Structures are given as structure tokens and as C-alpha cells.
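Fold this sequence, please.
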Amino acid sequence: QVQLVESGGGLVQAGGSLRLSCTASGSIWRINTMGWYRQAPGKQRELVALITRVGNTNYADSVKGRFTISKDNAKNTGYLQMNSLKPDDTAVYFCNMKGALYSTTDFDSWGQGTQVTVSS
């Protein structure tokens, strides 16, 4: 199966920046979509940003203009650059990837989550 490992979370002051990374390992033939989600205490998990295999992107209204999603296909790695962070961005951030394995089996995998805390 596919394992996702995230990194880059931490504590930052409001207005600061963080860059999250998510690297997939396994017998991956193709990654179709790569997304970042977040879940704050007492709230449902929500989509933050999504990028498709061909590079189309989609962002939550709350992060447009501040966050940028990107990927490195050769490294099976996705990134989320977060600028102008606000206390409302505080949450656990999860990476999700969907695609296909060499065995032709589809996969839909999640990372373990990384904490982002923005202080005011």
C-alpha cells in the first residue's frame, strides 16, 4: 500500500509562514490528486487545497491568496506553502493522495497529520 509522511508543521506567530511537505512511498504508478485538509478542535475536517495530476488547483476561500499547493511528481511529494498565517489557521493538517498502483489497484491514502499552531 501507499504510506504518506508529512513534515513541516510547528508553532508560528501570526503573519508568519510555514511549508508543509508530504511524501508518498509504495509501488505508485500514478498520483491523480494530492490534497491538504485540516481539522481544528471541535470542527470537521475541511479541504484546504487540492492539485490534480495535470496541475489544476483548487483552494478553500479562507486561504486563497495566502496558501500555495505544489507538487514534485518525480519525488511523489506535495507541498503546501502557507503565508500570512492567522490564528484561525491553527489545526492538524492532513495530506491525502489518490491514484493507482503498478498492480492497477487504486489507492486513497492519508498522512498521519501535522500540527500547525498560529499564535496571535
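The longest strand covers residues 28-39. The chain has no helices and eleven strands.
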